[in-house]
């Protein structure tokens, strides 16, 4: 396959020390594979999950392809250069999310990328959208949609139809709130005081909790939510008396070098976290 070199941010292992501006290869326009698209990246969006993926313990294995440079960043807006699918043609503006940014040519933090459409949710960009807006929406919108769908059976089956959204001013928190309100649910959302007006006036939540001064568990618990969506980590609202479902997109812990959900506990570099998670699972 004929290829060309493009600039890209890559890493090997030991993030953040190995993250660097480097080069990667993508196919030439004539060599794009079937059901793939070659795109010129206009802009991309950074998300915490990018750090989580770069910190997956498997990248520390000193064997085979694990030592190779890997791309990073999932969300993108782009212009199609060449297409191996009838869905797109050269010149189309497209946006989406790479589910395999670490694959060769698969990272969005690059000049160009070669995306497998089977592993890349991607659609044409609406004419009225800026590339910045398009790049920023895919991951957080789909995450919010998945959260709402996950708690819906536990909320819709009640008369109160109440949900708590922890981190209401975060990207996923904003979209989760919008979807919940459109569904007709009542919402309590947490944020700092500086975002209170936005939470109440723009997002139209029913109750606001200031996590910087309020007792979050007590204040959220007083709302009697039927489910909780956690967008900021922590354990304050796990197992509230009224809650029948707890969803978190972050996990119990956050940090610059270890961030994300339950998978981060099963890390041979952090045996204490792994043991603690197994104990929690065993206890239900």
Provide a brief overview of the structure.
The protein has 284 residues and is of the alpha/beta class.
What value does the Rg take, in angstroms? 21 Å
- How many distinct domains? 2
Helix/strand-derived class? Answer: alpha/beta
Q: Can you write the helix and strand succession as a string?
A: EEEHEEEEEHEHEHEHEEH
What is the overall shape?
Answer: globular
Largest sheet: 5 strands, antiparallel
The fraction of residues assigned to DSSP E strands is 25-35%
Distance from first to last alpha carbon: 51 Å
SS field, number of helical segments: 6
- What is the helix fraction of residues, given as a range? 25-40%
Strand order of the largest sheet: 7-3-5-6-8
Report on this model:
It is a single chain. Helix content is 26%, strand content 26%. It has 284 residues and is an alpha/beta fold. It has 2 domains: 3-129, Quinone Oxidoreductase, Chain A, domain 1, CATH 3.90.180; 138-250, 3-Layer(aba) Sandwich (Rossmann fold), CATH 3.40.50. The strands form 3 sheets. Strands 7-3-5-6-8 form a 5-stranded antiparallel beta sheet. A 5-stranded parallel beta sheet has the order 11-10-9-12-13, with helices on both faces. Helix 4 (196-202) links the parallel strand 10 (186-191) and strand 11 (207-210). Helix 2 (131-156) packs across helix 3 (171-183). 40% of the residues are buried. InterPro entries: GroES-like_sf, NAD(P)-bd_dom_sf, YIM1/Zinc_Alcohol_DH_Fams. One of its GO terms (cellular component) is mitochondrion. This is Enoyl reductase (ER) domain-containing protein.
